[in-house]
Amino acid sequence: MSIEFADRNNSNSVKYDQIRAKYGEDVMPAWIADMDVKVCSKMLEAFAGRINHAVFGYTFRSEEYYAAIVDWYTKRHSFTVQREWIIDGPGVMPMMALLINVLTEPEDKIVIQPPVYPPFFKVTKKNKRQILENRLKKENGKYVMDLEGLEKILSKEKPKLLILCNPHNPVGRVWTLDELKELSFLCSKYGTIILSDEIHADIVYEPFKFTTMLKVNLDNVIVLNSAGKSFNVPGLTNGYGFIPNERIRKLYNEALEASELTTPNIFGMLALQSAYTECVGWLESLLKTLRENRDFVYQFIKSNMPLIDVPLPEATFLMWLDCSKLGLENPQRFFLERARVYLNNGKDFGDANGVRLNFACSFENLQKISQAMKKAYDELKV
Questions:
Q1: Largest CA distance in the chain
Q2: Given this model, what pLDDT does residue 2 score?
């Protein structure tokens, strides 16, 4: 299946329209984590069938829907999940917010691993919990977990919850089985539940292999996921997860019902079922296209902007640019003002020296973005 890119102007796009309304029509957006690709044609056919039916009343998630999730993890991730483990919800972050309220109390402490997805900070703070930072560290140019530092935090603070980004956004790490085993050992030792966000699990580049946290531990692990990132449907709110622990699963489901969040979005539900049963070929084509984009922009930055430290993403369609050697007060503002490229601000991820670039756009746009950034970089007196 071929991958087609769309012109997203004038579509109420957060990535394009919202930013250009604020900063100008000449801005080239390369930020928020959705893609400029058209969705799989099989998914559009499924939507068309539902639209032609012309009734959009209350609906429910069918057993075929749940079977699609079970089969996906079995075939794609080599792990057999049990149907009864599955939990529903409107999306990964709303589900995470519910779980934070179910598993912790106000002023309790939660561990996150910066630089990391900004909503992890927000959902913790907005729910009046305290953040404990277990920052990633670099070893031989690669980001790794600081497990020694984590044990110190766990032993001293006894946090109830650790939020894991697996694969990691923004640094693009695919955590290995050994890394996850070490993490699980420490969290089990100190009674900390691991909440694993696995929304980028399907955007992984060979030779790397995604490992679900469920392969390591079932008792104190919760996994959240969605078809949103991999199949470019984040606007069709729908999520799912796995809670093998029956007690925790019961608490979550009670909270979901109490919040009146049990009715699914018709098209979000349909998107997932179609994606997992009909769109494997499309996903493989997407991965090939994204890999080409990744390789181009990585080599371009390494060759033309050598003072920017950029790890090669093992997963995701996002790239973390460490600009600490450039001596800039605000790298995001610099590239916006000098290159007219809008990137995510590293400060939101817990590292003001970085920016995050989204390379899930047409190759033509990616070239323009790269060249504009190089021009701005070349004008720097470092």
A1: 62
A2: 85
